[in-house]
Sequence to fold (573 residues):
Amino acid sequence: MITKHPSGEETQVSVSARIEEELRIKESVIYSSINGIAIGDLEGTLTYVNDAALRLFGDYSASEIIGKSAFIFAFSEEQATAVFETVHKKGSWVGEITGKKKDGSPIFVHLSANTVNNENGDPICLMCSFVDITDRKRIDEELRIKEYAIASSINGIGIGDLQGNITYVNEAALRMWGADDASEVLGKSALEFAASEEEAIRVYAEFMEKGGWSGEISGRRKDGSPITVHLSASLVKNDRGEPICTMDSFVDITDRKRMEEELRIKESAIKSSINGIAIGDLEGNITYVNEAFVELWGGTDPSEVLGKSALEFTQLEEEAVGIIDAVRERGNWIGEITGIRRDGIPITVQLSTSMVYDDAGKPICMMCSFVNVTARKEAEEKLLKAYEDLEIRIEERTRDLRQANIKLKKEIEERKTAEKSLLKKEKELELKSLNLEEANTALKVLLKRREQDKDELEEKVLANIKELALPYIEKIKSSRLNDKQTVYVDVLESNLANIISPFLKKLSAQYINLSPTEIQVANLVRDGRSTKDIAEMLNISERGIEFHRNNIRLKLGIKNRKTNLRSYLLSLT
Fold:
């Protein structure tokens, strides 16, 4: 709950607490991100890296990184310098860059670098987010090499269905058979290219019986001229051992092995993915699931799932139908949906589903990827409840602070009344004791000296409490305390405040509109503490300290003025 004044505006204490809570949440998100994240000052000196970044670059420890230049991760200092200059000039840079791991080996990352600006639009630090794409670059390169090898192979390669109809030929095969375009070959029976139909039928029967055949065979070119090739023919089967097509290699079978290896890599990647993956036909019936999907569903074997409609795995069938319709219409759908496990327990999953098209742009199946976010959703609910509890505690603390302020004002008024009464008595005494002028002068000198000694004592008490007690109380409060320990710390802090409250009569008048945290920041600034020192003492981020400093300048009426905040605070005392 956010406390408001009658005017409807939020109190500074509530706003401050809410901002601090938001900062803690964001810091937690950055710390636990699977992407590498690094933060540095405007000169490129690292001030923060999360665990993902440390692991990505070779299991560094934070102490090995913090305080060093970001160039420690660069494989090419020239390339890194160019990126650094672009970020300073344009505010951001996104692209692929070569980095260097702890052992000196290269690593390819997709980097997003940005300057972070304050409320006035001034840059205050640099932030980088990066993802390791080394494996992806390697796989992409391997796929391009393999696809080019098949297309440009000097060996003729052909693929056909189980009826012997040709579905693919490469350029070498076209040249071998004297064809100008693949359309002249695709869809035709392989028997049409045989010199002897009888021999071709015999080879085909032996091939289908044994699952493979290798040897020489006579063929016929487009112009009718004879050709003899060394043919290696094989049946291609799926994971279940079922034949799905035929594959022929003329003279050399190297490219066929490469194609099979590429298919196995893709199948292995899908099978071993930590995300649940399912493939279904255009009607939504499941035709393939990986082990992660079976585990997510709570099953033990893919056979328990295959052939079933995807609608059986959702809590709301109407919602699932809408998603399938959206995929058919737009080609993809991304969002959260509630599913049902095998044991009937509902789970929340992040679903990404897309339509898969053939080369002609015709849809052939649907592919879905699932991530279980149930735990995250539960954590969000717990966090919301904790936030509500915190608001209640803030409201109670604000009420206590208001009462303390009222008491402080009353004490100030009493002191002012006492001072006025003293002045009045001094004047009466002066009128009655003109003959004691010299004695009075001496007395005044003594009183002045007494006030100076009193001020010095007050300053020593204040300095000792602020430097030797309050910072450690703040550190204790930021640690994990039970309820009883929290009460003791609050009582100790309150008693210290009561001890020093008479000494703050001058500064308190100026601080009357400041929040407790802003008063702490103001006192530390007046004592010459840096923003970094204050952040460590109060367990607040440096950005939070800058936010409090801006609020203090605003409330003291010196914002947008060329006035040093510490000098101004010293002038008040």
